[in-house]
Amino acid sequence: MRKIAVLFIVFISSFGFAQVTLSSSEVSFGDVFTNADKEIGVDVTNTSSRLLTIGIVKIYNEAFSYTIGSTAIEAGKSQKFRIKFSPKHNLAYNSELLFSLSDGSEYRIDLTGNGRYTDTYYDATFNKSHQALKDELKSIISANYVNFGYNGARDKMYGEIDNVNGKVTCVYTGRVATFNTRSGATSQSFNCEHTWPQSLFNQNEPERADMHHLFSTDETANGRRANYPFGVVSNASWSDGGSKLGGSVFEPRDEQKGASARAMLYFVLRYQDYSNFIDNQEATLVDWHKTFGPSAIEIARNESIFSYQKNRNPMVDHPEFIERINVFGGTDTKPVIKQAEVLQQSINYGNVTTSQERVVYLTNTGNQTLTGYTVNSSNSNVIIKSVENSVAEGEVAKITIGFSTLSNGTYNDSVIINLNAQSGQRLAVPVQFSLGLSGNEKKVAPPLCSVRYNSTSHSIQLVDVPQGLNEVQVYTASGKRVFNEISTSFTDIPTIGYNPGVYFVVVNSQSDVFTTKILIY
């Protein structure tokens, strides 16, 4: 039978002002390719004489992630945040890693890095979005363009680009025919589909011959598509191979939906929105683009067309461009987003002194610099000592607070952050803290939270549990948290299945933190 002996009880009434140091408060990853990632470690060292635990950890950009060995840090020891940068876009990234400790204190690590594409073709799009990105893409795919003319384009399509071992497949129906010339296409009832109907641009060149929106199709299917917009067909009047027509809308089969969408998006980027043709179908095309990503055939086709026309379809090369463009058919004005977040929705500092200061971080999660906001407390218990009143996108503003001189006891207040002039937001962070005895007063021993072993249930049990109990945590001597399945009553912690050794039980109440060291053998 496994037994537990309580070696001694450490009766710590409060951790006081938690102290940790960071090996670095700023981490720059430099340039990292979007098909790779980079990891940098930051050591968090406990410079206090007591066990500290890391509470909330938050990063405000999905390009950054972290792991940490344990959230418990013994006195004089360190834990390492392993921070990884995995960029998806060729953008300059700026974010923060914020974390809190068990006493409510907050710390920050500033994170920066540049995502870069391995292909230099799109270098000029770095850190551009919305209309600026659209304009740059138009410039890139228009430069050095080689126009083969309509006959030359079809020759390349039928003979090479869409020809696999002498066979050509209709993109709409899947019908396969054997030919490699324009005359052969005619004899096999094939012709050339203009994804953006040529009647809408009066058969102008180079639009008519741009192979990025031309596809080999069955003659009947091409005629059925005509110049109808793309969309979802509910009641089909014609269908073949998965493609269908109905209600003046044409829906390609699934194998072609993404390619047709990317051809349309390419066309409007390269040329213009003739007859506002894309407007009513743009949402559907964007959805198809996201749902049906570039296939190996489409990627190979893009490469083949580039070898002749000397330009590429950016939506095939980098489908993620869609996340940086809101409107293809008109001017894409960058939206103004002014918003901010706080790390903790409520803070319990435990026991403090009036000489201590704490920091609350305000993170700018919008895309504009925030200025002119105000910070105050709902009453005089918490003192707003200083505020950094301007915070750039992706950065944090430091709000320093102190505590009023009051009689011993527990107090409640709120830090109120008014962003009304910026975004209409009003953030209220409830704050609780306790003031202990002054040095000249008689000290009263704090209430003890004792621990005992129940040999029947094989569990750790808490006795004399303090009021306002928030959480119970159990750690190994190495700082690894265990016993996560603790009952809601916080009084029965099963020990079956865990190795003998030294463990720490940490009991967090509203105003105190108790630590007990026990031995399981």
Walk me through what this model shows.
With 521 residues, the chain is an alpha+beta fold. It folds into 3 domains: 195 residues, no CATH class; 110 residues, Immunoglobulins (Immunoglobulin-like, Sandwich), CATH 2.60.40; 75 residues, Immunoglobulin-like (Sandwich), CATH 2.60.40.3080. The chain is built from 8 helices and 35 strands. The strands form 10 sheets. It has a 5-stranded antiparallel β-sheet with strand order 1-35-34-31-32, with no helix packed on it. Strands 3-10-9-5-7 form a 5-stranded mixed β-sheet, with no helix packed on it. Strand 16 and strand 17 form a beta hairpin. Helix 5 crosses helix 6. The N terminus is likely disordered.
Distance between the termini: 9 Å
**Taking strands numbered 1, 2, ... along the chain, how are they ordered across the largest sheet?**
1-35-34-31-32
Radius of gyration: 32 Å
Low-pLDDT residue intervals, each spanning 5 or more residues = 1-16, 437-447
- The structure class reads alpha+beta
Secondary structure: number of strands = 35
| Total helical elements | 8
Biggest β-sheet strands, sense, barrel: 5 strands, antiparallel
Give the overall silhouette. elongated
Oligomer: single chain
Tally of structural domains: 3
Proportion of strand residues: 35-45%
- Report the helical percentage: 10-25%
What is the residue-averaged pLDDT?
Answer: 88
